[in-house]
Structures
1.
Amino acid sequence: MSPRPRWRQPGSTPAQLATARQVASLLLGYPDEELLGRLPLLRAATAPLPAPLAGPLGRFLDHLETTPLPELQAAYVETFDLRRRCSLYLTYYAHGDTRKRGMALLQFKHLYARAGLQLTDGELPDHLAVVLEFTATGDASRGERLLTEHRAGLELIRLALEERGSPWAPVLQAVSATLPPVEAADRAAIARLAREGPPTEEVGLDPYGSDAFAPPEYMPTPGQSAGAVR
């Protein structure tokens, strides 16, 4: 029996999905002058994409082009670093601040290493921008599997951004559009996660800290934003 082909957005080629994910990866990093300098390149890359991908990404590029950088940076920190429900660290939604999360982070890191992707200091392996970069430029099959395994968290981020009217909501909409439609089991997991929140540490065991998004060895160095993924 021949292997089942991977699902893809109708009308999208694998190259187009990779482009959309690469662009989304850049747009979900901490905004800086380098990102603004890439605007023409990002517009040129997104223009040929199918409407479900080009439309949302284009809306955020419009916002990026018309918003002062200090305002973008302040909004990024307020949205992604100070609000847990908008956190871009995928394993947080699956494991909360528990010891299981530390093991999940190591699995991400080992998967990247086997594919030849080396993280720089301060980059957390489960940050959505990093996962998207891996999926776009490293191993699409394994990257899509990671995104699918963490679909509940991914969709909860999207819903939280949409509820807030965040300018980053269209970026998450584009990411979701690169994946298969949400199935009933995923919808149930999303509803449960929204209702109950991420898991908590078992009684008698201390988590990594009420304000931590990752075990200490994965935390950024002092003075660096936890969401500052380049």
2.
Amino acid sequence: MTEQRHIDIAHLFKQLETDFPEQLGAFKALSRVLEREGVLDKKTKDLIMIALACSTRCEKCIAVHIRNAVMNGAGKKEILEAAMLNVLFKGGTGVMDMHVVYEELYNHFD
């Protein structure tokens, strides 16, 4: 199931590149600027984006940012702690959303 999210994202971006090349190009350019290393390193930014993705309940965003965090050296506990920040803001629904985080982590750890 987790790999399917990445396939879906690739298909979506391909379709958007066809239908909205200028808009998607602008989005990608903004993403490159905001996601590159600055005062915050890439791993820290990925962990922040995991918390934000959990807050918006974007399963595909969670998948992408967990993969990026792992590639940038984040460990399982760091990812879980970042995702748990969502619980502080959302309470019970934040706890219920953690299933997506665990699904993605099983793809990268254990």
3.
Amino acid sequence: MQIPDLDAVLAIENQVYEFPWTRGNFIDSLVAGYEAWLLDDGDTAAGYFLALQGVDEMHLLNISVAPAAQGRGHARQMLDALCRLCRQSGCLQLWLEVRQGNERARQLYRRYGFAEVGQRRAYYPAAQGQREDAVLMSLQLAAQPLNPEAQP
């Protein structure tokens, strides 16, 4: 993903999230050198992820699949690519937060091998000025099989 891709990325972001990232959030992440990947499905953007690398771990900040492209294995494909990138970078653990109420995503992450390891209270903005808790999830990469077809 690069700055010229942001129109397509923001189109997905605004369809998928009630409280989407802004163009500025994406630009700041790209300028800071975060890992960013855009998944093309033919001639259109199907999804993307952004992740922040630490010393020996990676933190998945945002992963999204366009509504029209959901249910085709794209999220798994991007997770495979991110795990490959983690291993190439020497990262042993992958972290993420997910909305407590996003059961579909939580189920995907659990099937992928993530464990629910904690909670962040009032982490996400919610409707009517409320806040929603996040579930903290972690994947130990040494135990996760790698799909050789996934390329970051």
4.
Amino acid sequence: MAVATVLHILAVIVWIGGMFFAHMALRPVVANLLEPPLRLQLMTQVLEKFFLWVWIAVILLWLTGLWMIFGYFGGMTHIKISVHIMLTLAIIMTLLYIYIYFMPFPNLKNAVSIKDFKQASKCLAKIRSTIGFNLILGLATVIVATGGVYL
């Protein structure tokens, strides 16, 4: 259980912390300092690196979460409501990430590669708003995870 818990928490930190940093710190500063061509190229490369780590985090979260549910708690019928809430939020967050990765992100990369910065800006705006919503869900998940023992 200790290994699963540690890996689970580290994956949470990478994903939610990365979204928080990108959404609340990096993007606003980059928007103020850089013109669209350079800003869009930078954000595309940053997201490319970050999304690799998100894939690792998502896989680890699902593996360790299910490991704890079935290996430690004894299955779905034995977990608290807070874990059911976390699972529901995890499904939504994962689907939103998959949407970002396979829809607006490839379009962003393509638009940047052909220097269509107007289209790239639209793609990045979709990514930013979806990451913002996913960040809210992620923070809610942390609240449920830490406060769930009291439910």
